[in-house]
Amino acid sequence: MTERNYMVKNWMGVVLIVVGALVLMFAPAFSMLGSILLNVGAVLIFIIFVRRRWRKEPDMQDERTKKIGAAGLSWSWLLTLMLMAGLYLLTTAQIIDPDPGLLLVGLMLFLGVSGRLLQVYFYRKGDIGY
């Protein structure tokens, strides 16, 4: 399997997870469908991860790679904290009344997906300026 195929299947898993989370948050009547989509997406990403690791040799990490990964995760934490603050303000102003369990699932998914997307963005952008 080529790198492009791995990437396409990974994105399919991410899309399934995001759609499943959205179904769980905004359409509780279809909670079974949302759970199925979440699980299928997670299993797909796990299988692709395992197959990819078995196929190739371990990656060598240099200082630049570690710096880019740390920057992506730092920005992800910051964005998640800002999202939590915004949700707190919306809840306090009684604009929304979210279910706590679904809110936690959404925040966890946002943290993971945004961390990976930011890492990919920084890898493609190149060097980090600090």
In a nutshell, what does this entry contain?
The chain is mainly alpha-helical. About 80% of the residues lie in helices and about 0% in strands. The chain is flat.
Descriptive labels:
single chain; 130 residues; mainly alpha; 4 helices; flat
Write the layout of secondary structure elements.
Blueprint: H1 3-26, H2 31-55, H3 63-92, H4 100-125
Helix pairs in contact: 1-2, 1-4, 3-4
Describe this structure in words.
The protein is mostly helical. It has 2 domains: 1-58; 59-130. The chain contains 4 helices and no strands. It has helices at 3-26, 31-55, 63-92, 100-125. The longest helix has 30 residues, at 63-92. The protein is flat. The chain starts with a helix and ends in a 5-residue tail after the last helix. The mean pLDDT is 86.
